[in-house]
Amino acid sequence: MKQNDVLIRGEHLTKVFGYGKQKTTAVEDVSFAFHEGEIISIVGESGSGKTTLAKMIMGLLKESSGSIEYMGKPRQLKRHGDRKRYWKNIQAIFQDPFSSFNLFYKVEKLLLDCIKLQGVNLTKEEQLRKMKEACSFVNLKFEELHNKYPFELSGGQMQRLMIARIFMLHPKLLIADEPTSMVDACSRSTILDMLLKLRDENNMTIIFITHDVGLAYYVSDTLYIMEQGKVVERGPAEEVILNPQHPYTQQLISDVPKIHSEWDLA
Ligand SMILES: Nc1ncnc2c1ncn2[C@@H]1O[C@H](COP(=O)(O)OP(=O)(O)O)[C@@H](O)[C@H]1O
Ligand SMILES: [Mg+2]
């Protein structure tokens, strides 16, 4: 991977929930530098702090201590305008694709809203072309889906629709929190391949969160391994997988005995 500019940098981020006996340190002293056009996987077991870290990066949770720098400047979220500007270039995909959509809207409206969000004036034909292009990017047929409601689609189709929206919005930063854990194997590999394509064609920075080190290896340039709120190991995916240094990483990898032959991602 060529070494691009740093898009977002975290310094000593910590998040503590609750007080006294109820206190949980969900994220502890995590620092990172994520570059433009880089796919970073954050890997760890359930409860290791991945989602909490993602929410701090998204600006949905305030850090207890530490700071974030975005495009070379301290990130400001105090004013409404600051948040609007920050969120304009950040999109997220979550585990449950149905949670991100208005379930009373048909597919066509969900996609149209996404075009309107960008504030460009397009003719009906141009809108249609854009929606078709976005659907075919994720191997969906607009003609078959446009008149359907979300509940008429599978989880995998919904998640791919989510990626079609990302394709249209082309944010600088995409945070995908366990996006493949609720979908079928076929959609899973499509989704992972689409992440690679978004990186390559749009120079997108993608944070891919997973408990599955095999998926992380398939899709990422860089791995961050989290255990109990801390990053215990990080580095180029190849290096970390082929020569893990930390016992926790070694254990994660030994749990996937056939990591080199699992390319079918079934
Ligand atoms: N809003 C919250 N209030 C209290 N504790 C929380 C909250 N969110 C997460 N936690 C705790 O923080 C830890 C990390 O959770 P999370 O970031 O969701 O982990 P992961 O995404 O890796 O499964 C867990 O112990 C969880 O119970
Ligand atoms: Mg989580």
TrEMBL record:
Mention one GO biological process in which this protein takes part, according to its record: peptide transport
InterPro entries documented for this protein: AAA+_ATPase, ABC_transporter-like_ATP-bd, ABC_transporter-like_CS, Oligopep_ABC_C, P-loop_NTPase
Keywords per UniProt:
ATP-binding, Nucleotide-binding, Transport
Under the heading PROSITE patterns, the entry gives: ABC_TRANSPORTER_1, ABC_TRANSPORTER_2
Q: Does the keyword Nucleotide-binding apply?
A: yes
Segments forming domain ABC transporter: 8-253
Does the record bear Transferase in its keywords?
A: no
Give GO MF terms, alphabetically: ATP binding; ATP hydrolysis activity
Q: Where are the transmembrane segments?
A: none
Task: Give the matching SMART domains.
Answer: AAA (SM00382)
Q: So what family is this one in?
A: Belongs to the ABC transporter superfamily.
Q: What is this protein called?
A: Dipeptide/oligopeptide/nickel ABC transporter ATP-binding protein
What organism does this protein naturally occur in?
A: Paenibacillus glucanolyticus
> What is the taxonomic lineage of the source species?
Bacteria, Bacillati, Bacillota, Bacilli, Bacillales
